[in-house]
Design brief:
about 120 residues; alpha+beta; UBQ-conjugat_E2_E; 7 strands; globular
Length: about 120
């Protein structure tokens, strides 16, 4: 069974995303980055960002409670935004860590994950 970052990349390709790369932070955590991700809704609708999704070694059995966003200028100020924390990402100062607790389903986990990511943007 394909798991981890490779599984996430394959699932994202199957959903039409292209050009993903795997990033690794200073702690060894892998992320799948979707370049030029267009935010579909909310106050940031239409913004083009790099979106990095943490990919634990056992994905989709588990997920990490965050997304990482690279946008210039940053989408949000650092600190508590009401429903989530926005802090510096371990990917570097140009990235923002947005906390969010994901709930994956056994059927189509990456579809469910992307739906929740899009809901984060709709809430802002």
């Amino acid at each position: 069974m394909n798991i981890g970052a490779q599984r996430l990349v394959q699932d994202l390709c199957d959903q039409g995303h292209e050009g993903m790369t795997i990033l690794v932070d200073t702690n060894g955590m892998q992320y799948v980055m979707i370049p030029e991700f267009i935010i579909p809704a909310g106050s940031f609708a239409g913004r083009n960002i790099n979106l990095a999704i943490p990919a634990p070694t056992d994905y989709p059995r588990s997920s990490i409670a965050s997304i990482h966003i690279k946008a210039l200028p940053h989408l949000a100020t650092f600190g508590q935004t009401g429903t989530r924390n926005v802090i510096t990402s371990p990917l570097g100062s140009e990235w923002q860590y947005w906390s969010y607790q994901f709930q994956l389903s056994p059927n189509n986990p990456t579809s469910k994950l992307l739906a929740q990511i899009n809901a984060i943007f709709r809430q802002n």
